[in-house]
Amino acid sequence: MTISTRLNALWEYANPRKFLALTERVLPALWVLTAVTLVGGLVWGFFFTPDDYKQGSTVKIIYIHVPSAFLATSVWFMMLVTSLVWLIRRHHVSALAARAAAPVGTVMTLIALITGAIWGQPMWGTWWEWDPRLTSFLVLFLFYLGYMALWEAIEDGDTAADLTSVLCLVGSVFAVLSRYAVYFWNQGLHQGASVLRAGAVSGTDTEEKVSNVYAYPLLLCLLGFGLLFVTLVFYRTGTEIRARRIKALMARERANG
Amino acid sequence: MIPDLGKYAATVLSAYGASLVLLIGLVALSLRRGRKLRAEMEKIEQRMSRNG
Amino acid sequence: MIALLKRDLVLAFRAGGGFGLGLAFFLIVTVLVPFSVGPQSALLSSIAPGVLWLGALLACLLSLDRLLALDWEDGTLDLLATAPLPLESVVTMKALAHWLTTGLPLVLAAPVLGVLLNLPAPGFVWLVVSLLLGTPALSVVGTFGAALTVGLKRGGLLLSLLVLPLYVPTLIFGAEVARRGAAGMEVATPLLMLAGITAAAIALLPFASAAVLRVNLR
């Protein structure tokens, strides 16, 4: 099979009916797989890993914090890709998938922020530090809120899909800009903050520093969160397709009297 | 049952608690809306097929 | 194009155009700040650049929902969309008119309000320069937001929610220039970043605004 035919096979699922049929088949397995990996990873991390010599038991927060932070940005990227697909190829499933993903991304961002704040309290001695990383996540959270609000505000489905897609594109550029700006801004403000930029909050540092004892359950949790996202997006996209169909059927009913 | 979390017990438990509440809330809301719309769609489709 | 700009300017100056509204808002915010943080002049002079930038930004935001709404209501936008003039130039002119009637007066008023807040002497030049460079970006980004929400009945609040995150980079670099200037520090890097953001926004965003406006006019 060449790449292009394989891609064509992928586009087949852009048909709402085919998408529903596919998700109907794979969703039960996905739910089970998600539950197993997520519960397994969290239980492994929570009950069966030793405390860090410096951070004590707070190191266990990593199993939630890092996967949610990873997803918070990945979800936005997925929304960017599906928005582009909608704008270029006009596949309804793509636009609806972006809509379905947004609340998941919002919750992930919120979890990353909350666990970060709770973790930061004993480690840095403050709930909130205007650290570049924290700040850019807060900005990302605002972007998610605006995106969802725009979807909710517009009646017509296709108009909403168009407008939110453009917002997602423009927003992505500005989100990257903000991230860059925020790194600049905090350095410029107080040099001392670099002491607080603990490597413990960043996934990359952790994997270099922390032994396999933490890395394996963390990988399992990453997988679990990823599966949860895929499952939720499949399920929620199905819901959005049905909502759209209900609207269309009602309109037809009214037209027929 | 619960491992000894030392002096950071409240920190770790609240982080896990808050995250689990949010995750379960997200899943529950998704499922509720999904079920509702699925039922509604079936109802309408039946009505449409009955009326022709 | 020029005719459109002239028309917008005349409408803005006429009663009800909201020309002075942004300025008055800017003044009031600045006057309220000492009431809320206390009258210590050392504190005021250290926060003055940030407060002035935030005040200008909010005053800009306040006037955005009028930017396209009036033309939308009376059908002018539909006419403009069918006119030979490309919609990209229409939104650029709209943004320019908004800047001339809102942004520029804010820039000119800022030094006066800086006196009220005890802005250190070297800060005045950089405050004006940073606002002069930054406010066009605020107008252009705001036009995009206004184009997104133009068809909505309760668009005002949504407009703020959409536009404020987009203002973050401009605010950071703009306020940084003003703050460093006030502290007598080197300002070249944030100044270049600010200019870059403004130039890129002016060059690219009108296409997004026009695309969005076309969707809304469909």
- The amount of beta strand of chain C, in percent, is under 5%
Order of helical and strand elements of chain C: HHHHHHHHH
Of all protein chain pairs, which has the greatest interface, and how many residues does each chain bring to it?
A: A-B, 38 and 32 residues
Distance separating the two termini of chain C:
23 Å
The succession of helices and strands of chain A, N to C, reads: HHHHHHHHH
How many separate helices of chain A?
A: 9
Per DSSP E runs of 2 or more residues, the count of β-strands of chain C stands at: 0
Rg of Cα set of chain C: 18 Å
- pLDDT under 50 segments of chain C (min length 5)? none
The backbone outline of chain C, from C-alpha atoms, is elongated
Label the structural class of chain A.
Answer: mainly alpha
Strand content of chain A: under 5%
Helical content of chain A stands at over 70%
Number of E-type strands of chain A: 0
Shape assignment of chain A: globular
Whole-number mean pLDDT of chain C: 88
Short description:
Chain A is an all-alpha fold and 257 residues long. Chain A has helices at 3-12, 16-47, 62-89, 92-124, 132-153, 157-189, 193-196, 203-209, 212-256. Chain A binds chain B through residues 42, 46-47, 51, 56-58, 60-61, 64-65, 68, 103-104, 107, 110-111, 114-115, 118-119, 121-122, 228, 232, 235-236, 238-239, 242-243, 245-246, 249-250, 252-253, 256, and chain B through 3-9, 11-12, 14-16, 18-19, 22-23, 25-27, 30-31, 33-34, 37-38, 40-41, 44-45, 47-48, 51.
What does this structure look like?
The complex is a heterotrimer of chains A (257), B (52) and C (218). With 257 residues, chain A is an all-alpha fold. Helices cover 83% and strands 0% of the residues of chain A. Chain A has 9 helices and no strands. Chain A starts with a helix and ends with a helix. Chain B contains 1 helix and no strands. Chain B has one helix at 9-51. Helix content of chain C is 84%, strand content 0%. Chain C has one domain (2-217). Chain C has 218 residues and is mainly α. The A-B interface holds A 42, 46-47, 51, 56-58, 60-61, 64-65, 68, 103-104, 107, 110-111, 114-115, 118-119, 121-122, 228, 232, 235-236, 238-239, 242-243, 245-246, 249-250, 252-253, 256 and B 3-9, 11-12, 14-16, 18-19, 22-23, 25-27, 30-31, 33-34, 37-38, 40-41, 44-45, 47-48, 51. Chain C: Keywords: Cell inner membrane, Cell membrane, Cytochrome c-type biogenesis, Membrane, Transmembrane, Transmembrane helix, Transport.
